[in-house]
Amino acid sequence: MKKNKIMKVIISLLAVLFLLIGCGNKEDTKERALAKEPFERTEFLMGTVVKVTIYNQDKQEALDAAFNRIEELAGLITVDEGNENSEIEKINEQAGIEPVQVSDDLYYLVQAAYDYSESTAGSFDLTVGPITELWHIGFDDARKPEQSEIDETLNLVEYSKVKFDDEAQTVYLPEEGMRLDLGAIAKGFITDEVVEVLKEHEVDTAIIDLGGNVYVMGDSARGEGSAWNVGIQDPFETRGTIIGSLALSDRSIVTSGIYERFLEVDGVNYHHLMNPETGYPFDNELAGVSVITKKSIDGDGLSTSLFSKGLKEGLEYVNTLEDVDAIFVTKDKEVYVSDGLKESFKLTNNAFTLK
Fold this sequence. Notes:
Blueprint: H1 2-28, E1 34-45, E2 48-56, H2 60-77, H3 87-93, E3 100-101, H4 104-119, H5 129-135, H6 147-154, E4 163-165, E5 170-172, H7 186-200, E6 206-210, E7 213-217, E8 228-233, E9 242-248, E10 251-257, E11 262-265, E12 268-271, E13 286-293, H8 296-318, E14 325-330, E15 334-337, E16 346-347, E17 353-354
């Protein structure tokens, strides 16, 4: 009799345990509510094509909120004639005159750009604006400057001169003619902000593309546990042409290439990735670098640094970083990948060789 009571207790406990496990599994395997057709919107902003695609059901308002945030931040950063909201332009206009008080968003971004300038020993320099303005590659008035102009302008490029006042939240360029240029990091910052907006709207399946800065959010729309199949940009071609692919989730992919924007003078191509030390485009064996990171702002900042280091030093450096990988493409169309991608990167373009 006593034995039967014990068996009944054991059976009852097992029944409760199975019930709890069953409930847990049901919650863990809860399926996402995806729309039959994704919500998409494409705009031309910041001189590039911006596209956000949301796959979750009933999330149209999230798409509107994402673009509102993009337009808000682009207005603070973009240096265009007639853009009275550009806080970057206000800082540049007041160079050598007085500090400029800026918004929380821009103060964070300028400080982040300063930190990258410092950590890369100036290969990324947020004060490279006078050089990029001199060449103006990507615009109708692009030209190759005289050496005397470059020499004079280089004196204005020095990130360590930028002054911050945390209490007043001001940024100051102490010499007349200094200019901030955050083009190499701004899109990454905005991409990360869009991710946060989508999370606030309970979106967990989306793709954000800010003209070379791509972020794949959550699992692929194909199914739970299935990563996105992300194409790696061909640095010799326009956007949309790829050399290979990676399976990624919740990751940013930033690609910088020498054929994206360039100026041809006397048969020589001068690309837009400027070396703050020489005043000329970086000149090495690389045609492009794609950087994979958790945050897009990191990929932006690192892409310039890795490009500046060249193939050998760039590979060595990226292999010392945690949660960062990169794909290097040389001008000879040879492809090199960091240690973390050796098993996952798939080359699909026969014009390239995986080394």
